[in-house]
């Protein structure tokens, strides 16, 4: 498997999982939230706040998915690096609110790392090579 195909599989997994999270948080927020890692959830009608997370996931999935489908690989790499900030923020949020350390690092931290590595691999794949004619000119 070529590096480009491997990176495409990784990016497709990121986009697919992002869409999965979006759908579950939008359609079934109460059943989706126990695995998030926070020690308590909003009481009463807190589903609206949880749907916000789903909408955020949907926006990230659409942005990455559109770039993936249209072949804008360099932009996709940068957007994936940016997208890794969301699960990193989730990890910090869980830790700051005395939630599950295992979920913070094992779910959110690893997700952030996976997305960032995928973005980095795509950027490396699309790295612009200096024109050899101009690269080594004498001073």
Descriptive account of the structure:
By secondary structure, this protein is mostly helical. The chain contains seven helices and no strands. The protein is elongated and about 50 Å long.
- The coarse overall form would be elongated
User: Can you give the mean pLDDT?
Assistant: 88
Beta-strand residue percentage = under 5%
Q: What is the radius of gyration?
A: 18 Å
Q: pLDDT under 50 segments (min length 5)? A: none
Number of helices: 7
**Which sheet architecture does the biggest sheet show?**
none
Distance between the termini: 42 Å
Features:
139 residues, mainly alpha, 7 helices, 76% helix
Briefly characterize the structure.
By secondary structure, this protein is mostly helical.
Write the layout of secondary structure elements.
Layout: H1 3-27, H2 29-32, H3 47-70, H4 73-83, H5 85-96, H6 101-125, H7 132-135
């Amino acid at each position: 498997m070529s590096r480009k195909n491997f990176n495409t599989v990784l990016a497709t997994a990121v986009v697919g999982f992002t869409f999965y999270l979006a759908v579950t948080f939008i359609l079934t927020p109460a059943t989706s939230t126990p695995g998030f890692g926070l020690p308590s959830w909003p009481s009463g009608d807190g589903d609206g706040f949880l749907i916000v997370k789903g909408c955020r996931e949907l926006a990230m999935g659409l942005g990455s998915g559109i770039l993936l489908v249209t072949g804008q690989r360099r932009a996709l790499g940068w957007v994936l690096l940016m997208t890794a900030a969301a699960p990193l923020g989730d990890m910090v949020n869980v830790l700051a609110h005395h939630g599950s350390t295992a979920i913070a690092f094992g779910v959110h931290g690893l997700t952030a790392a996976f997305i960032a590595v995928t973005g980095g691999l795509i950027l490396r794949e699309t790295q612009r090579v200096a024109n050899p004619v101009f690269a080594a000119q004498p001073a």
